Amino acid sequence: MIPTTMEGYIFRETSAPKVITSDEQFEEYVSALLELDEKRYPTAAERNFAELLVMLIQDYVEKTNSVRSVSLMAFLQELLSADGSWQNN
Asked: Is 39 part of any domain?
């Protein structure tokens, strides 16, 4: 489980998120993104971190899935705005 404070965002052996190269890493980043989305009042750093995760996730999905009926960005935006949280800030 990914901790909820920015200082605790450590991914495996690295101290910062990297380009996603495996399904396991993909799942870890998605989990972190969902956890950030659950925060009622995320900090600016957390919002920036979430944007970085979205970009990394989108890149991985585009590289691994050649056929998609819905764009990943539209899917993630819908996911993040489902509860009307910080996405609109």
From this structure: no
